[in-house]
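Quick one, probably user error.
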């Protein structure tokens, strides 16, 4: 699988099959899944905790660190996909709608190269 050839639905199906094989659906409620997203996001953040900005590029050159980061990001995505499925949220539509809202809130001509 790769980003170019994989649909969001295929990701949903992949996670859903994993959960179903283990009969974990009873545990995949909105509270548990939202907590899991936050927990995994915090684990992702741990890889960058206390690093200075000038140290960040070296992370990409560390295969072990990149593998751990990749796995944490995959955990965030898996729980996000499962949460969306549980809540009947179409991820593609949600992201498209949010980006439209953000474009109005942060017009490019006003925010190009800055965040305030």
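Nope, works fine. Designed sequence:
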């Amino acid at each position: 699988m790769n980003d170019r050839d994989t649909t969001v639905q295929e990701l949903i199906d992949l996670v859903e099959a994993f959960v179903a094989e283990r009969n974990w659906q009873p545990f995949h409620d909105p509270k548990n899944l939202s907590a899991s997203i936050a927990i995994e996001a915090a684990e992702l953040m741990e890889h960058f905790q206390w690093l200075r900005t000038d140290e960040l590029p070296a992370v990409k050159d560390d295969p072990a660190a990149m593998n751990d980061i990749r796995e944490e990001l995959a955990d965030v995505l898996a729980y996000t996909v499962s949460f969306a499925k549980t809540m009947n949220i179409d991820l593609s539509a949600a992201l498209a709608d949010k980006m439209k809202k953000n474009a109005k809130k942060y017009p490019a001509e006003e925010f190009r190269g800055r965040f305030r």
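The helical segments are 8-21, 30-46, 56-60, 63-86, 91-105, 108-111.
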